[in-house]
Sequence to fold (337 residues):
Amino acid sequence: MIVLRTLAVPASLFLAPMAAGIALTISGGEVRVPSWMFVVAQGLIGCMIANMLPAALFGELVDQWPLFLFGATSVVAISGFLGWLMARLHLLPGTTVVWGLSPGAAPAMIAMAENYGADTQFVALLQYLRVVMVAAIASIIAGAVGVATLHPVGAVSWFPPIAPLALIETVAVAGAGPIAARLLRMPALALLLPMFGGIALTHLGWVTISTPPWLLAAAYALVGWRVGLRFTRPLLVHAAKTLPRMIICTTALIALCGLFSGVLMVVAGIDPLTAYLAMSPGGADSIAIIAASTHVDAAFVMTMQTLRFLAVMLVGPAMARFIAAQVAEAPHQSSIA
Fold:
């Protein structure tokens, strides 16, 4: 982490724990991040996003709805088409690629894949491989286009003065998401409820969101560890033969989304990193961390990511199920050829 911070790598507080988790599991180590700690970290990130998204942004959303509609639906359409194509070409076993390439909502896609009879280990690996690659490429692009981090090493005041009431209110809002997610069995609420609730409550003047650096650093580390620790040695051994093809499929998805981010740059005059993050195929929490760590239009990025996330939740499972059914109905036609 110290090396990444010294090099001013964006989101180093997230990337370093993620890399450490991957290295630990590959070397045979076993460490678990309790689920409740992870969802609480997501709730804190939701509060951070609420601070990044002013209430006035909803008016901008109405004014620019064609642009946001294009961005939200195009990523879903790209992932669906690419999943169908890769499955028909038999690059991965069964319909795994259809579920694995679906952008965002990883727990929902893994559960749906299991119900459909796909290999959930492959699906999980594809889902989290995409998160790692998106985050790594974002850091590379940030360095290439000269986007500096918001808080260079040595410039962060880790323990600034804070209002105790504001911190209590923030923790309460952050904790409401995980509780609702568990009671309603909707994992996405762990992030979405604090985000939307935080925006509404702040706008009404009922709460003050306070996310001091030390608290966000802990949340970033937990999310990074959780992602990195998913890459266990048994899982990588299980997927060893297909891992290169997984990387190819994931790279193709990111590249196609990158092409569409170029459309945002040309049509709307958006800077490269903002456009890339806005069109990136997830996950929303890691993108939020990167956006909050760099000089980008974080409000635009998170609005686009949130709309895409909602689109995936609404149509993603049905679309993946439909494509999987189409692929499953015609495997023999491709094998004969």
About this structure: The chain has 17 helices and no strands. The chain has one domain: 10-25+33-154+161-328. Residues 213 and 281 are 27 Å apart (CA to CA).
